[in-house]
Amino acid sequence: MKINNTPFRTIWPTADNTAVEIIDQTRLPHEFVTLRLNTMRDAERAIRDMLVRGAPLIGVTAAYGVALAMRDHASDAALADACSVLLAARPTAVNLRWGVEKMRALLAPLPESERAAAAWKEAARIADEDVAINAAIGKHGSEIIRAIHHRKNDTVNILTHCNAGWLATVDWGTALAPIYTAFDAGIPLHVWVDETRPRNQGASLTAWELGQHGVPHTVIVDNAGGHLMQHGMVDMAIVGCDRVTACGDVCNKIGTYLKALAAHDNGVPFYVALPTPTIDWTLQDGVKEIPIEERAAEEVTHIAGLCSDGQVRTVQVTPQGSRAANYGFDVTPARLVTGLITERGVVKADAKAMLVLR
Ligand code: MRU
After folding, report:
1. What's the CA gap between 292 and 283, in Å, rounded?
2. In this structure, is residue 151 part of a structural domain?
3. Domain that holds residue 165
4. Catalytic pick among 171, 242, 249, 330
5. pTM (global) more than 0.90
6. Exposed/middle/buried for 322, CB within 10 Å: 0-12, 13-18, 19+?
């Protein structure tokens, strides 16, 4: 996608093919800063500290992390170490495991002398594949938006949560890909952007990237969605996800479940956009089986923003001494999901229907 009319991906190899560069997402929306990842440890830190985030981008960054490790040491021990360090960086997104295991499977049988070059090529291939997958999600999802527009003959209002746009992937995004595709095709639409406390991925990232592309949008507090749905102001919701079970339970950013409940109560279609590598075929019951990342309390007790003097500062919003809990994700049961928008088409969120995606 474009930033000030210049095309960007979220991760790309340096010109000399020895390292990778990323957009530091912790600095957006107030500063656009790119950073060079020189080592596997740099990649691990970028994932852990959320300089890169979003399930598909985490998977690709991890793949490049393995490639950076192989550039330095390509022994079996180095491969095993890189895989275990990267796998531990964040727990929820299954794409992380998918990216790392794909690299391990390719590299383990190769002689050491061939691993570095093969790893680099495979990481680049995984990145390109992500772009192609998301473009296909965009195509399939935009047909749903087109159908709503056809029926309504007016602007389509779409609610989204967190950031599942191009910043969460290599390009296009998952939940936002149908929105960009429909917008580019001239379908009038407007996006309600949940701010997504505590890290505000909606307010800071989704709003920023929609604005860069010229898509009309309005940021709302996380608790506003139910009210808007009751008043007919939301035609559909599209969210991304970090893991989907074989039965169609969806794990996504905390607060998604409440939006799905409100959508269900108000007859608003609730779609989940995902690349098929986000499906964890080993799991059935998402509520019981998906480990939920718990992050630092400071993300809840403190908030950062742009001050009137142009400086970004962090302030405390809770009383001194109050404890805070910070669950990063929740699980939306399949029964609340209208459909899964994948690169292979739109599929019902149930075990039988999902078999076509295996
Ligand atoms: O914690 P993050 O910012 O990495 O979480 C990302 C999300 O949960 C998004 O909602 C997204 O839907 C999944 S990535 C396309």
Report:
1. 14
2. yes
3. 140-357
4. 242
5. yes
6. exposed
